[in-house]
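FW: tagging you since you asked about this chain on Friday. Here's the raw sequence from the shared folder, copied in full. Didn't touch anything.
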Amino acid sequence: MATSEMDIIKRSARALSRDEKLQLIEFLTKSLKNGGTRSTQLTYGKYRDPARPVSTSDDFKMAEWREADIDANGN
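HL: got it, structure written out here
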């Protein structure tokens, strides 16, 4: 949906009465519950590069931020 279409919908919704807005909300809620959008989870290993080793817990420990570390400004 183009941005201009969304703007038209928003402008139209502003002109609705309170009851009509509630009906619209109910319609949108039902459409979302009935699969209006699909949730997808990441697939393990999908982006794995066989040429690169898998990160270990030591890698994560080295990358952790510590209070004693220098901040982004070098202070």
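FW: Residues 58 and 64 are 10 Å apart (CA to CA).
HL: agreed, and The mean pLDDT is 79.
FW: great, closing this out.
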